[in-house]
Amino acid sequence: MSVGIVFPQQAHFSSPLMLKSGALLPVFDLVYETYGTLNAAKSNAILVCHALSGHHHVAGYYADQTENIGWWDNIIGPGRPLDTDRFFIVGVNNLGGCHGSTGPASVNPATGKHWGADFPVVTVEDWVEAQARLADILGIDAWAAVIGGSLGGMQALQWTLSFPERVRHSLVIAAAAKLSAENIAFNEIARQAILSDPDFHGGNYYAHHVRPLNGLRLARMLGHITYLSDDQMAEKFGRRQRPGAGSYSFDVEFEIESYLRYQGDKFAGLFDANTYLRMTRALDYFDPALAYDGQLATALAPARASFLVIAFSTDWRFAPFRSREIVHALVHNGQSVAYAESNCAHGHDSFLMEDAYYHAVVASYLQRITL
After folding, report:
1. Which residues act catalytically here (predicted)?
2. CA 59 to CA 105: how far, in whole Å?
């Protein structure tokens, strides 16, 4: 049921992009992938927005990297909830990313050197604006749906506000209308781990031919804990000790320690620290209601899309009541919204998992979309 072999594509944009911060990005590239076929009316396109550590490779695999499966492959393909026999799916690596789109590791055309610390802070609003330019190139006037989990869900929500006439359905999964103070605190600790790494060099580590691997590794270890549920960690690892444990040292003694170190090392080898800083800051800044004295219903009033909001009972980082805040605001406005809550045991990461109930809800909703 996989989409099979896929190919990344690149779009170049020569028109400047004014960012929310006031910075101007003179030119930029976006790397993206597509799955399925765009119909003649161009009415069957779905945009998949990625979360913090995601990218454009959403489904399928590359001919020379058959083990590199797209991060949401279990939900995209023929007969799957995001059915490529019916829909044209687009995945994009956001601005500031480190998987081909213009970001801190890219070359600044003005200097001929890596952007590094000079790459501006980007926001969810900036990503949506850049994605809209990609839609223009693809000839897509309006998305049948925009879908995403976590930070991707925030983008799906922002699309309905930035371009209410260009998105017919918005699927907001395991997300919130703004971060809690606790979530901002987690992000700040992760950033401080990176900023305090001696190899960070103020964000210009590329020129020193080093990478702040220790800081990025610690940031990922911290983040990964918050993505899992306590029950899942207890079931998967418990207090099981490693062979040879009991040395009364600070070596790896418990299975959970080994797992976190593995995840940290793996992530640090693939991701860019400057990108991590910008992605977490984009999370912090997202708050559509800020300009409306905290009134979320007022902020969401311009939206014309129909909504599906999904939460997971074991997600303590984006708890279900945060999703219900979005639902309540939409209901207050008389806007079209459906809500589902899954008991998937994987915590915040549940949106990435092949949970039967969750997938059935998405499939049922998308099947009812008129193309």
Report:
1. 150 (nucleophile), 315, 348
2. 25
Check 315, 342, 350, 355 and give the catalytic one: 315
- Active-site choice (2, 53, 150, 229): 150
Is 83 marked active-site? no
Do residues 57 and 2 lie in contact, with contact meaning Cβ atoms separated by under 8 Å?
no
Amino acid 17 reads: L
What distance in Å separates the CA atoms of residue 156 and residue 167, rounded to the nearest whole number?
A: 9
- List, in order of start, the domains of the chain with CATH numbers: 9-178+288-367 (3.40.50.1820), 183-281 (1.10.1740.110)
348 is catalytic: yes
Task: Please give the order of strands across the beta sheet that includes 306-312.
Answer: 9-13, 28-35, 88-92, 45-49, 145-149, 169-173, 306-312, 337-342
Binding-site residues sit at 220, 349
Residue bearing tokens 């049921």: 1
Task: Identify the residue whose tokens are 């998937």.
Answer: 344
Amino acid letter for position 254? F
DSSP-derived 3-state class of residue 109: coil
Active-site residue, 15 included: no
Residue-by-residue pLDDT tens, the chain, 371 positions: 899 999 999 999 999 999 999 999 999 999 999 999 999 999 999 999 999 999 999 999 999 998 899 999 999 999 999 999 999 999 999 999 999 999 999 999 999 999 999 999 999 999 999 999 999 999 999 999 999 999 999 999 999 999 999 999 999 999 999 999 999 999 999 999 999 999 999 999 999 999 999 999 999 999 999 999 998 899 889 999 988 888 888 888 999 999 999 999 999 999 999 999 999 999 999 999 999 999 999 999 999 999 999 999 999 999 999 999 999 999 999 999 999 999 999 999 999 999 999 999 999 999 999 99
Query: What is the value of pTM for the model shown?
Result: 0.96
| Residue 273: both structure tokens together | 């620290």
In sequence order, the β-bridge partners of residue 137 are none
Q: Are 91 and 9 in contact (CB under 8 A)?
A: no
Q: Which residues pair with 9 in a beta bridge?
A: 32
Please give the DSSP secondary-structure letter assigned to residue 208: G
Residue type, 34: T
Q: Which residue has tokens 């976590």? A: 150
